[in-house]
Design goal:
Largest sheet: none
Strand content: under 5%
Oligomer: single chain
Number of helices: 5
Number of strands: 0
Radius of gyration: 15 Å
Distance between the termini: 7 Å
Length: 103
């Protein structure tokens, strides 16, 4: 059950991560991605993991470089919408079967 919850949380983070990249107004992705992490996965991680993730944020490429690698920003809103739709469907199923409280 903890594996299911971890994947569920990761799905939420991926949606927020992609949205942060799309909405970022600066070249550095550190702050927007850090905010996405803090709003999703950070609450489930220990202090050591949070600090490690914080350090890893500084290895992210610039927004322009990342968008070049993934083919541009045009498809990101649709991708975020699809991920959120999947996340909401999973949340509904988990809620329906009382799986949101599993540890």
């Amino acid at each position: 059950s903890s594996g299911i919850n971890a994947e569920y949380g990761a799905l939420e983070f991926v949606a927020e991560f992609m949205n942060a990249i799309y909405e970022a107004s600066e070249e550095s992705l550190v702050n927007p991605v850090w905010d996405a992490y803090n709003g999703t996965l950070a609450a489930h991680h220990t202090w050591l993991i949070r600090k490690t993730v914080g350090g890893a944020m500084y290895t992210l490429p610039t927004r322009t470089s990342l968008l070049e690698q993934v083919g541009g920003a045009d498809h990101l809103p649709r991708l975020v919408a699809i991920i959120r739709r999947v996340y909401n469907s999973v949340q509904h199923l988990f809620s329906e079967h009382s799986l949101l409280q599993l540890k």
